[in-house]
């Protein structure tokens, strides 16, 4: 039975390249291939080329990758981790699960990223790490952040869930932190519905990473013939992505640059058609720093107040268009108030979270749909 949505233009459709079925059929045609991990190796090879100085491995989700990062950095009870409040709960949960305290700082209104100028004031003797989500695939100010971390002997974790194939100063996002984590969930540019990856850029973490990644065992050394016994060495878990998911993902990675170019085309079309509204100060459009190349992950606008945002979302829904807000600040959530604290003043986090609207954006979106959505947004403002 074929199911059809009543929605004219959905907020999101998962990326499909047309190669997924062919790759999966090839895998299923020879069951022995499943055990060999050929496609998982190809995925890791892709990221090995993207991050040649690091070690990249798949995980079952970006959340799991951040949990592994917290384990590797030995973050524990009473430790503090600095992060923005405007982010997904998965940025904070892995540290809270280990007894640590998220310390939230404000965002910069230009990019919705953590305000690097506020990080130093949030550092205490308990601070162990800084985690930097790259909102919408636009890089945080990584030069400043890594320099602050160096001076205070802190680890940097890049929450690169949005950032595949985006760059900061011509260098791939995910290259700057001691550890970086990426997402392949169903709303990401590149997807296998649910999956992730981790990259270890710090040489000091390599040996611990190999043990933890393999259930906490010395499997890698045992298979290499360097030790006599396969045994439990440290805390760890079952992290690798299944071979079936890796096969699906591999089909998308082969087309990743085409997918990115396609999304950027749609992103730029929105920007051009809504520019006049921005000039008239009806909306605020995203700002991309000159030193950042983004990947078209999210197209959003800011309106003047929360009530106007809600009216516009309802207006678009009546026209068959699904537009959405985004993160509710973690620091003011029911659990966030208990689990963490906000450093400094909340000048932009709450205000901008109440004004943001994300417009539909997905791979191979019709140009006519983008024009229709833009026309309706313009019509709303009269």
Q: pLDDT average, as an integer?
A: 96
Strand fraction: 5-15%
How many strands, what sense, and barrel or not for the largest sheet?
8 strands, mixed
Question: Helix amount, in percent?
Answer: 25-40%
The main sheet orders its strands as: 1-9-8-5-4-2-3-12
Radius of gyration: 21 Å
Q: Total strand count, please?
A: 13
Lay out the secondary structure.
Blueprint (H helix, E strand, L loop, with lengths): L19 H10 L2 H5 L1 H13 L4 E5 L2 H11 L7 E5 L8 H4 L4 E5 L13 H4 L4 E7 L8 H11 L2 E5 L7 E2 L2 E2 L6 E5 L12 E5 L5 H8 L5 H5 L19 H11 L2 H24 L12 E2 L5 E4 L3 H13 L17 H4 L1 E2 L6 H5 L2 E4 L7 H14 L2
Parallel strand pairs: 2-3, 2-4, 3-12, 4-5, 5-8
Antiparallel strand pairs: 1-9, 6-7, 6-10, 8-9, 11-13
Q: How does this model look, in words?
A:
This protein is an alpha/beta fold. It has two domains: 20-253, Type I PLP-dependent aspartate aminotransferase-like (Major domain) (Aspartate Aminotransferase, domain 2), CATH 3.40.640.10; 256-380, Aspartate Aminotransferase, domain 1 (Alpha-Beta Complex). It is built from 15 helices and 13 strands. The chain has an eight-stranded mixed beta sheet with strand order 1-9-8-5-4-2-3-12, sandwiched between helices. A three-stranded antiparallel beta sheet has the order 7-6-10, with no helix packed on it. A two-stranded antiparallel sheet has the order 11-13. Helix 1 (20-29) packs antiparallel against helix 10 (243-253) and helix 3 (38-50) packs across helix 10. The model is unreliable at 1-5 (pLDDT under 50).
